[in-house]
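anyone seen this seq b4? input:
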Amino acid sequence: MIKSIIISTQRSPKLKIEWYHLLEHCLVEELQFLIDSSDLKETGIVLEAETFIDGFYVEIIFNDNKDYNNLIKIIRKAIKNVSESKIIFEQIEVLNEEVKHFDLTIEEKSLYNSIITVTGQNIEELYCKINKLDIVDIRNFFEKVDYRLTYTNKDSFEIIQDSKMSSIKVNENNFNVYKQEPYLNGFIKKEISTTNEFMLLSLLSFMIGKSNNSILDKQYLNKNNYYLGYSHDINVYGIFIILFVAEYKKDTEFINKDSIHSFIENCNFSMYRNAFITYFCLTENPRSIAKIFSRNLNQFPSIKYKHLIQEIHQINKEDLLSFVEFL
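predicted toks r here
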């Protein structure tokens, strides 16, 4: 049975993303070294890691319960070693080489462009190199990082070491569209503090642009003989953001909050909700949800995956309509 421990930290918007990226690299390197130097070397442990604009996670994936206590010791030792300014300088070169391969397409840049409006952060900051003149500041940063540890298995996930989540000042608009040929882009956003809010927004995103019968399809793409249009979710600083991008030519009329509300009001809601349950079960599991919640929700209790599915079953059309009205 697959289990994992997720180490995560939330980025302070005042600090450079590339510092967190370097910290992720150094922590992974130190974890791997300690695992390889221990009795766990041949137990099949896998590390995964990712840095985004709001911080990073490192996930240690394992399959034997008896490895848990030893892994916790290794994690704490790795965090301590790295916090004591154990910068692995070759990782600076690795990171700087990695970000040279900047590979966002025009479509992807358009999709993520709304993040600038919402949070003031730019997705392209992820591709910044380390400035070696920052080394002293980076050392000080490494010493002060606060980590959250989250344990997951096939059924649930829970915090085993907590850290306080921060909020940031964001754009007051909850819905906006930006039109510039050949693509338009936009966002719907809302702060989340409960699993129910997370599920409502996930369902809304699915209906907007993740199915063959999506709102984008029915109200925009099919009418204009366009092909490309979809939604994509990100969660940063406790804010759920539904990003969307679509083909665009001048003066083409796009969907708005009223048309979304009208579509939901008149649709076969059970069909969409059931399709979303299938989609959610295919694309999400306790590990993936834990990664989202670990940097977005304060002090959540142990969460069972089956309870999340039950929450979707309990959503009705009126719940979603009310939710859209107050966006």
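The beta strands are 3-10, 46-52, 55-62, 148-152, 156-161, 175-180, 183-191, 229-236, 239-247, 303-304. The two ends are 40 Å apart (CA to CA). kinda curious what u guys think
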